[in-house]
Amino acid sequence: MSRKPTLAVVGATGAVGTVMLDILTNRSDLSEAYGEIRLIASPRSAGKVLQVRGEDVVVQALAPEAFDGVDIAMFDVPDEVSAEWAPIVASRGAVAVDNSGAFRMDPDVPLVVPECNPEKALERPRGIIANPNCTTLSMMAAMGALHRQYGLRELVVASYQAVSGAGMIGPERLYQEIEAVAGDRTMGTVAGDVRKAVPDLEGSPFPAPLVLNVVPWAGSLKDDGWSSEELKVRNESRKILGIPDLKVSATCVRVPVVTTHSLAVHATFEQEITVEGARQVLDAAPTVVVLDDPANGVFPTPADVVGTDPTYVGRIRQALDFPNTLDLFVCGDNLRKGAALNTAEIAALVAAEFSA
């Protein structure tokens, strides 16, 4: 007999958790399947009252008993918290849909993008489903559609990542830096030294000033000079698309944008591909929007995309000197499709099992 499952949102007061609540309130297709929606956060947030689906809900402290009767739990908490609590939730019979990096490369945990590999949500021996990193997710709907038609072989990606990808501290830091240099028209010149003008970098989530600057670094240092963000793009793309030998090289750059990641993608395919053929495939993809008329200044930018759900694609070009290769520019709101929305879409796949 079918029933409506109980959903828990863990980390409900965080940057992505707040977007999750907005999605559950304004996307009935992703919320009407649930009976109760329970909000859970750290003890310091317990007792807060938040709105979801037009109702006031009191936030509960993270504890085993908070999951009594829960069927699905969406996690947006730090890696170490997910690593501890997602298995606890799974052991109590719920499915944990985790937005952290704790389980993404675990071979017993599916890494799911519903547009690419929804069937993998059924294969969860640990009772956990992982949500990809926001940078990878920003291009997956588009690349998944093109891969199904043409067979993706190689990816070279440069990301331009918004500061909100670093959490709530990211936008706050950028606003502080903007205030520090605002009105000084010498800034960015020899006379106007941005490094001297901005607040001390100690405590900043970024290794250099973001205002009037770009920083070719996101994540933590890994072997051979690669950053963790760059390796996530490589490893997660392979797992999501089911191409273990996919050739991937990424350079991740932080830019002074509050929300929405952008990626310049150089993609090589097994089959011959044309701009018009790619455009037709992308136009047919239900969660992809093509904005591609550069002669009239039409292409996606973060200012156009922020606060929306689709993946936006433009600047689609046949790569010069590279056969079977396209260059394109992709934008996606990193807090929505890049995190909260994809998590909610995965949870919806699980919720559908209760009405099957």
Automatic annotation (TrEMBL):
It is an enzyme of class 1 (oxidoreductase). The active site is at 134 (acyl-thioester intermediate), 261 (proton acceptor). Its EC number is 1.2.1.11. NADP(+) binds at residues 13-16, 44-45, 164-165, 334. It catalyses: L-aspartate 4-semialdehyde + phosphate + NADP(+) = 4-phospho-L-aspartate + NADPH + H(+). Residues 6-124 form the Semialdehyde dehydrogenase NAD-binding domain. Coiled coil: none annotated. One of its GO terms (molecular function) is NAD binding. It comes from the Bacteria. Gene3D superfamilies: Dihydrodipicolinate Reductase, domain 2, NAD(P)-binding Rossmann-like Domain. Substrate binds at residues 161, 254. InterPro entries: Asp_semialdehyde_DH, Asp_semialdehyde_DH_beta, NAD(P)-bd_dom_sf, Semialdehyde_DH_NAD-bd, Semialdhyde_DH_dimer_dom. GO terms for biological process: 'de novo' L-methionine biosynthetic process; diaminopimelate biosynthetic process; isoleucine biosynthetic process; lysine biosynthetic process via diaminopimelate; threonine biosynthetic process. Pfam families: Semialdhyde_dh, Semialdhyde_dhC. Keywords: Amino-acid biosynthesis, Diaminopimelate biosynthesis, Lysine biosynthesis, Methionine biosynthesis, NADP, Oxidoreductase, Threonine biosynthesis. Pathway: Amino-acid biosynthesis; L-methionine biosynthesis via de novo pathway; L-homoserine from L-aspartate: step 2/3; Amino-acid biosynthesis; L-threonine biosynthesis; L-threonine from L-aspartate: step 2/5; Amino-acid biosynthesis; L-lysine biosynthesis via DAP pathway; (S)-tetrahydrodipicolinate from L-aspartate: step 2/4. Phosphate binds at residue 104. Transmembrane segments: none annotated. Belongs to the aspartate-semialdehyde dehydrogenase family. Homodimer. Catalyzes the NADPH-dependent formation of L-aspartate-semialdehyde (L-ASA) by the reductive dephosphorylation of L-aspartyl-4-phosphate. NCBIfam families: asd_B (TIGR01296), PRK14874.1 (NF011456). This is Aspartate-semialdehyde dehydrogenase. It comes from Planotetraspora phitsanulokensis. The lineage of its organism: Bacteria, Bacillati, Actinomycetota, Actinomycetes, Streptosporangiales.
